[in-house]
Sequence to fold (200 residues):
Amino acid sequence: MRKAVVFDVGRVLFEWQLGALFEKLIDDTAELDWFLANVVTEEWHFEHDRGRALADMLPERIALFPQYEPHIRAYATRFNETIPGPVEGSHALVERLAARGVPLFCLTNFGDEFFAAFRPTQPVFDLFEDIVVSGVEKVAKPDPRIYAITEERSGRAGAELFFTDDNPANIAAAKARGWDAHLFTDAKALERQLVEVGLL
Fold:
């Protein structure tokens, strides 16, 4: 069976930064830093990645920080603005792999509601056979269960899967299952890794 490539999405295919939205809403740099460290944090956001509904998350957060209610609601309604654009060079690699007939998959920690709004805006996802989304599955990397779901959906396991992700914990979890896993730093390094294994 032909080896498949599994891409992470955030910070591998697309830049992601909560501050990209909130710097539009909060002018003061010190306040912005405090807001991102205490109100709309990556840790809190990760609850949605793991499957919690925004309808549950938002009222809780607004009750804790009522002065920031408009900002917390903006997190839900303007999430696409936290994604400034593609990671330089990554989409070109996806296109080259697709042109060579390499099977492509995504394994992403992404809230189901947010992915439903983001996915239609990005034609690059049409090149992937399947996209495993943590918020839909209600389990997130590095939990082994989401890797097992990817194996089942791709029909592959172990070294039949080349995986790239920017989070060392996610790479370690993939390696524990025997995947050919590589920490993503930039597209140039990923290109070298793909060439080394004969996929490019």
